[in-house]
Each structure stands twice: as C-alpha cells, then as structure tokens.
Design a protein that fits this description.
The protein is α/β, with parallel strands linked by helices. The chain has a single domain, classed as Aldolase class I (TIM Barrel, Alpha-Beta Barrel). It has eleven helices and eight strands. Helix 1 packs parallel to helix 10, helix 5 packs across helix 6 and helix 6 crosses helix 8.
C-alpha cells in the first residue's frame, strides 16, 4: 500500500483511493455477482493501471477466498472488515495472518459499529492495528466524532483534535506505525444518513488533522501530514470533486450499485489526470500492490 499521497497544486492528492464495504447487506452469491460487476467497472477503465487511482473492495469474511479469485489480475485490492489481534485460542475470530494468506491487502479496524455495538475500546483497537501491521496488512483505521457540529466555529478543529486522539491511541504513540496506516474519516453521525457531511466541513477537518499529524513527522521518520485520509459516511457520486485535499472515498450502500462505483472512479480519474507534457516527463507512482501491503 502506498504510504502517502502528496497534494499537487490543485489540492488533489497524488493518489486517490476509492473503496467500498458490503458490510452484511449481501448473501454469498449476490456478493460474488456484485464483485463481477465491480470488476467490469474497473476493467472498463484501463487508466486505472497507472496507479493514480487505487480501487478496493471489502466483502464479508466467507466471501474472501472466492473474491480473491474473481478480482485476480485486476487493479482491485481486497480487504477485510475486521480482524482478531492474534493467532491462537480465540474462538470465532479471524487472524490477520489468515487474512494475508487469503490475499487481503488491508483490513478495516475500529469502525464506529465495532466500537459501539461490540465494545471495542482503544486497547483492543491498538492490539488489532499492531497485529495487522505485523502480518503485512495495511490497517484501515476508522475514526470520527460522534456529535454533529458542522456549524460550530470550532467544529472542524474540534473534530480533528478528537480524531487525532483516536489515531494516537490506536498506535500507542508509535508514530512510525502510524505512517503505515490508511485513515478513514467517518463522522459517526453521517454513517447511514441521507446525505454525507458537508464537503467544506470534511475538507476543513482533514486539513486540520494533517497539520496535527505533521507535528509527529520527525518521530515517524516520514511526512505524516501526507498520510492517506479518505472520507466515509453516506459517500456517493458527486462528492469527491468537492473534497479538497481528501485522499478518496470509502463508499457504502451507494456503491452496492456497481454503476455508482464506476461514476466515482471516473471522478477520481478526472481529478488525477496529468496534462500531456507532465505525463511525458513524470514517472507514474508505484501501484499500491508494489512491495505488498505494509
């Protein structure tokens, strides 16, 4: 997984990540049919091969082996919705090492639903982050404030400070580990809502968060202010072009219609397209697959 995506002069990060989770909305056969449609959307866009837009899918656990076969050879990365924190005597859990064996490149950790309904606290999330990283899988850390405060004068900065604390807790102060994360900023109040959070608010939160993260760059040994931060929370087509400085979208139910996934891919490709002179003089960044998941 690419470590970071530095912004160009337009405010668009160099690499955009477009992903979707199915949660538990689909049965086994329906999910495989959906994956085939998603693959068609990806195959219909050969420009994805340049690696400036990285698509990923996160189906439920039982689908992972077959999903790996369906998307084999495509730019699509495979992810998992959760993981355990170790191999061994943990009935009902799935270890990161097993997920890696199944071809997962990233794993979602700390989703608001896991925190709220399954009692996952900062200690558990930190153990999962470490275990996923040790297994060579990129942790996709989900963070976001509970309360809607878009109209508050300090709303964005307050949300960014809260998210920064969540990231700090998740890595136990190990900012070198933080440099190997992807962050999904998902305001809890926007998950499942009719509309996403306002584009200006999201951009302001991410901008403030990047400033807070950049202060740890010396500890991390890398530019943490350029860490990939994607937005989730009722995300849908039309949102991405308005999100200045955000590294992509983490889609949910709106992308269960594969055509909508294709629309967002088109938006991302348009935003990352290089002018012809630049295209001739610039080497495209390595695919997120290069070097394996971190």
């Amino acid at each position: 997984m690419a470590e970071c995506s530095s912004a160009d002069h337009s405010g668009t990060p160099e690499i955009l990540y477009i992903g979707v989770s199915t949660k538990m909305y689909m049965g086994y056969r329906d999910c495989l049919d959906w994956l085939a449609r998603i693959q068609h959307e990806v195959d219909s866009r050969p420009a994805l091969a340049a690696g400036r837009v990285v698509p990923f899918v996160i189906p439920s656990f039982p689908v992972l082996p077959a999903a790996g076969s369906v998307i084999s050879g495509s730019p699509l990365l495979l992810g998992a919705q959760n993981c355990g924190w170790a191999d061994g005597p943990w009935t009902g859990e799935v270890s990161p090492s097993l997920l890696a064996e199944l071809g997962a490149s990233l794993v979602e950790i700390g989703h608001a639903e896991r925190r709220r309904h399954f009692g996952e606290d900062n200690t558990m999330i930190a153990r999962k982050i470490r275990a996923a990283d040790d297994a060579g899988i990129t942790p996709l850390l989900c963070v976001g404030e509970e309360t809607r405060n878009e109209k508050s004068g300090t709303g964005a900065s307050g949300a960014a400070a809260f998210v920064h604390q969540q990231i700090d807790a998740a890595v136990g102060g190990d900012w070198a580990l933080a440099s190997r994360l992807m962050i999904a900023y998902e305001p809890v109040w926007a998950i499942g809502a009719a509309e996403p959070a306002g584009a200006g608010y999201v951009a302001a939160v991410v901008r403030s968060l990047r400033t807070l993260l950049a202060a740890h760059s010396h500890e991390a040994g890398s530019t943490l202010g350029e860490l990939p931060v994607i937005y989730g929370g009722s995300a849908k087509p039309g949102l991405l072009p308005a999100l200045d400085g955000v590294s992509g979208l983490f889609l949910g139910r709106f992308a269960h219609d594969a055509a909508n996934f294709g629309k967002v891919l088109d938006e991302a490709l348009s935003m990352t397209a290089l002018p012809e002179p630049s295209r001739r003089n610039r080497t495209a960044p390595a695919s997120a697959r290069d070097g394996g998941a971190q």
